[in-house]
Specification:
The complex is a heterodimer of chains A (155) and B (237). By secondary structure, chain A is an alpha/beta fold. Chain A contains three helices and eight strands; from the N terminus they run H-E-E-E-E-E-H-E-H-E-E. The N and C termini of chain A lie far apart (81 Å). The chains are: A alpha/beta (155), B alpha/beta (237). Strand 7 of chain A pairs antiparallel with strand 1 of chain B, so a sheet runs across the interface.
Amino acid sequence: MSKFTGKGKKRTPGISTASLPDIIFMLLFFFMVVTVMRELDPQVKVVQPNATETEKLQKKALVDYINVGPPFDARYGTEPKIQLDDAFADVEEIPIWIKQNRDARKEAEQPLITTSLKVDKDAKMGIVTDIKQELRESNALKINYSTLQGSVYDK
Amino acid sequence: MARREITEINAGAMADIAFLLLIFFLVTTTMDTDIGILRQLPPPVPDDMEKPPEVKERNVYEVLVNSNDRLLVENEPMDIRDLKEGAKEFYTNPNNRSDLPEMRWVTRSLCVENITQLKNVIAQGGGERDDLKEKLKRWEDKLSAVELIGEYRELPTSALISLQNDRGTSYNMYIAVQNELSAAVNELRNSLSQEKFGVPYSELNPLDADDKPKILAVRAVYPQRISEAEPKDIGGN
């Protein structure tokens, strides 16, 4: 019987941490895969308005963004400006930009391209209307007004 | 010379390195899914377009927003909080008011009658006309809607919400108005779908073969009809 009775007090062995790096690496790889590095440096300050009837944008690869808002750098003024990719642009440059984006996509995917307007909530509709007219002219008819989720009644 | 014993590399710090990288990716990850109000712009108008036919006054729900973000709905000032109910009343006209659109009952026999009539016309040589085919398709959609949810009251085809804003309207207000107009349709669709199918419209899955006809039926009953007029420039800016 003495074979089975332990020799005095038994210490609980410490939990092995050898597999900890593996777990962490697993998390790391997960985040590395899902991470989308921010595609463009925002040059304009955009505080999006609230809305409740929102839909999620599908297929991020087929979404192009137009940012509109007052520039971060006060040297460019305080009036809302349009940002395409990484630079400021005029309304007249939008058709060329749309065409470039269209050419960069496969032909089958071209009708699915959505243009997402990220517009500051204090911007006036004048500039937005001009953009919309240019988009109509260049047949980029699927648009998305980017918003946050929230009640429209709060200011 | 005695061979030195090869000591094992201490891998304990590996976890720390991995943690560091992990935290870096955690911080840089933008998990935010882009949400927003999806809209389809009307295609560009050719210069030689003929004028659209006049629409009856009662069939147009006129929403004007001025440069001070004030609303004028059907020539009455209105608070943004009341816009949703107003639009819902326009879509349904529950009390048959004479200044709101005249609703028509869509019945099975009406659908069948129209479909046979259109098919006859197409068979008699009008086969190349796209507008007739479109009409036929619309009636077939209506028929399947009737079969799925029963007879319903239909908005006249010409009825629409006309939204016009000023160039000085703030974007915030514009989105609020768009949101309320969408909310009106969505609420009507949700309650109809809840009543007929036991699930709100927003939970029907367009990729599901069972749900697809339900979605089409609900859409046939409450179509989204927002038309944006070219903006005015009164308020300046």
